[in-house]
Amino acid sequence: MRYTKNKLEIELLKVFSAQKNKHKNKYNILGRGLPRSQGALEYQMQTTFTEEERSLAGQAISKIESRGLIAPTYKDINSPGDWLAITPLGEKALETGALDELDNLLLRIKSKTDLLSMRYGAYEAMISERTDWPRHAASSCRELITKVLHTIAPDEEVIKDPKFIPDDSSKNKITRRERIRHYMRKRGDVSKSDIEVIDKASNLVEACYDKLSAVSHTDIQGADCLIKLTESALFFLLN
């Protein structure tokens, strides 16, 4: 596999955006027939999909439709649902690179780090042919959580918090849990149970990192679970 679903979603939006006022048949974009003709997506990407890649592209087009980034025009009599056009939401997604709500939340915190690239870097690691890809995927997940926490709760801000409790076990006396507490106090909706959930999820990501870094490079399922766990923890924190 050479492409992630995220990469295909972006490329699909580019195809639909090329002629904004013209709807396009999704099967013309994906390619059809036997022998199969090259679709508009392959033409744009200057490639020929394997059947597995074309299937993934089909999943990607369904995904961006479900998010409202493209929508049926229902102008065709024979197959009204197969003709699609980009929506204003899709144009905005193409402009910002934010394909879902978590992407939007990550952009909203205005980090100096490219958090979207970091998020999808884990998926890129999964499809790479490097034998140490599990370590890279796990590292991306752990680093993403670290960068988010340091963005929403920077050191100087946490230390000035009257409720800050220094922890000698941490190098700078600021634990992940303290950053989460500070951020939620700052947001005004602090909840002990929320802090517990996020902190436990972060601990689990750390544990998974240690495990995944040592497992076989064939453990795709384990890596995917780690990425989904990371994304869920961040969504719960930022939403």
Secondary-structure element order, N to C: HEHHHEEHHHHHHHH
Output the radius of gyration: 21 Å
Total count of strands: 3
Structurally, how many domains make up the residues? 2
The gist of it:
With 239 residues, this protein is mainly alpha-helical. The protein has 12 helices and 3 strands; from the N terminus they run H-E-H-H-H-E-E-H-H-H-H-H-H-H-H.
Descriptive overview:
This protein has 239 residues and is mostly helical. It folds into 2 domains: 5-97, Arc Repressor Mutant, subunit A, CATH 1.10.10; 105-238. Helix content is 62%, strand content 4%. It contains 12 helices and 3 strands, in the order H-E-H-H-H-E-E-H-H-H-H-H-H-H-H. The chain has helices at residues 5-17, 26-30, 40-45, 51-66, 88-96, 101-108, 115-127, 133-152, 155-160, 176-187, 192-212, 220-238, and strands spanning 24-25, 70-72, 83-86. Strands 1-3-2 form a 3-stranded antiparallel β-sheet. Helix 8 (133-152) packs across helix 10, helix 8 (133-152) packs antiparallel against helix 11 (192-212) and helix 11 packs antiparallel against helix 12 (220-238). The longest helix is centred in the last third of the chain and has 21 residues, at 192-212. The chain is elongated and about 65 Å long. It starts with a helix and ends with a helix. The mean pLDDT is 86.
